[in-house]
Amino acid sequence: MSINQADLTASRPVSASARNSGEHVLGTGPLELLVSRVEDLTPRIRKFELKSPRGAVLPLWTPGAHIEVPVALATGLETRCYSLMGDCELRDVYEIAVLRHEEGRGGSRFVHGGYREGMRLRCAYPSNHFELIPNRAPCVLIAGGVGITPIRAMAIALERHGTAFVLHYAARSPRETAFMQDLGDRFGTKVRFWHSEGDCPNRLDVASILRAVPITANVYVCGPPGLIQDVSDTAVGLGMPRSNIRSEMFAPAGPAARDHAFEVLLARSHTRVQISADETILDGVLAAGVVAEFGCRAGQCGACAVTVLEGEVDHRDTTLSDDERIVDRRACICVSRAKGTRLVLDL
Ligand code: FES
Questions:
Q1: What is the mean pLDDT of residues 30-48?
Q2: For residue 74, how far is the Cα from the chain centroid?
Q3: Is residue 203 a part of any domain in this protein?
Q4: What CATH number does residue 154 fall under?
Q5: 68 and 148 share a domain?
Q6: Are residues 286 and 326 in the same domain?
Q7: Nearest-CA neighbor of 331 among 214, 251, 253?
Q8: How many angstroms does the Cα of residue 301 sit away from the middle of ligand 1?
Q9: 33 CA → ligand 1 middle, Å
Q10: I need a surface site. Which of 50, 140, 162, 165 has the fewest CB within 10 A?
């Protein structure tokens, strides 16, 4: 998935701007949408339907796309990206589903608590960094938790076009499995549910799943970082071409317990920033008063990418290509870190 670059800016003041009749609209994006329906899918995942306030046809999108929506945090107005999860041929509604992250920076908590039916939002246009590969090879779709959202849209499109696929969906328990009935009804034996908790746990076994499909299959995975790593390492280990493996992370690959502190030198700003083990480069840069662009803060949009002048990067984004990382020396500073003790950035 990708993000609409037009609206990727640093934190802005909260602006509930008035438009036309003086109604309040949250956000500054070019696409105005109305929250038309709110529904709980699981205890922690809430679905939101978004429509044109004037009943207009919505801009086109493709499976794997996301939309960037506004969230009002104590620090100002920010945006968050959520995958579109419905049928891309339905042109009057966008559907997103949001997992409430208690430990996150507050975006999902704001959406859960703040988005109400009738509320107007100014969003970015849909954008896609997680597209289906345009061929008829059989597909393996793997979703972890709320990572089902783009995968569901992909499955609907593949089914419509008659492309062979299997969908594996891992969640903690049936209660935490969004769309269980819907997916079963739509796709029958093409969908398989895996639950790590409950009376009869049956854990997702990535190796068995990938061994059972042709080596030329297209593999799509969306979920937490560990699942994505497992799928990509296993697929590559089985000889599947890297170019056939596409992924999207639904949770920010933020600092982990194994991370270490390092120093970042901002060459253009002549600023030296110490990044602690539990802080991102982006947060350190912003705290130092240096202006930096960003969008998703999750390694998905590329808005925060900067050129690395010196040092080795531990890349954790899911948006930059190998060429962008190796040839252009770009790095997404919202999630990526230094492998060593120092990075020099063109910032
Ligand atoms: S802000 Fe989106 S990749 Fe960093």
A1: 97
A2: 23
A3: yes
A4: 3.40.50.80
A5: no
A6: yes
A7: 253
A8: 5
A9: 23
A10: 162
Q: Is residue 256 part of a domain?
A: no
- With respect to residue 149, please indicate whether it lies within any of the assigned structural domains: yes
Give the Å distances, CA to CA, from 157 to 108, 116, 125, 217, 251: 27, 29, 20, 17, 24
Distance 332 CA to ligand 1 centre (A): 6
pTM metric for this prediction? 0.79
Q: Among 9, 68, 283, 297, which residue has the most ligand 1 atoms within 8 Å of its CB, making it the best to mutate?
A: 297
Indicate which atom in ligand 1 lies nearest the CA of residue 299. 3
5-19, 65-79, 172-186, 322-336: range with lowest mean pLDDT: 5-19
Site residues for ligand 1, CB cut-off 6 Å: 294-297, 299-304, 317, 319, 332, 334
Distance 160 CA to ligand 1 centre (A): 32
Q: Clarify whether residues 287 and 337 are in a common domain.
A: yes
Please give the share of the chain, as a percent, with pLDDT higher than 90.
73
Which of 81, 103, 128 is the last residue before a domain boundary? 128
Q: What CA–CA distances, in Å, run from 148 to 82, 123, 151, 153, 193?
A: 12, 22, 5, 9, 11
Distance CA 153, CA 135 (A): 17
Q: How far is Cα 209 from Cα 204, in angstroms, rounded to an integer?
A: 8
Read off the pLDDT of residues 206-235 as tens digits, 9 standing for 90 and up.
Answer: 999 999 999 999 999 999 888 988 999 999
Q: Single out the residue of 343, 158, 148 nearest to residue 261, CA to CA.
A: 343
CATH code for position 45: 2.40.30.10
The parent domain of residue 157 ranges over 139-249
Q: Last residue of a domain, which of 215, 249, 283?
A: 249
For the chain, count helices (H), then strands (E). Answer: 7, 21
Closest C-alpha to 48, from 21, 18, 86: 86
CA dihedral (185, 191, 196, 198) positive or negative: positive
State the chain's mean pLDDT as an integer: 89
Q: What is the pLDDT of residues 229-242, one digit of tens each?
A: 899 999 999 999 98
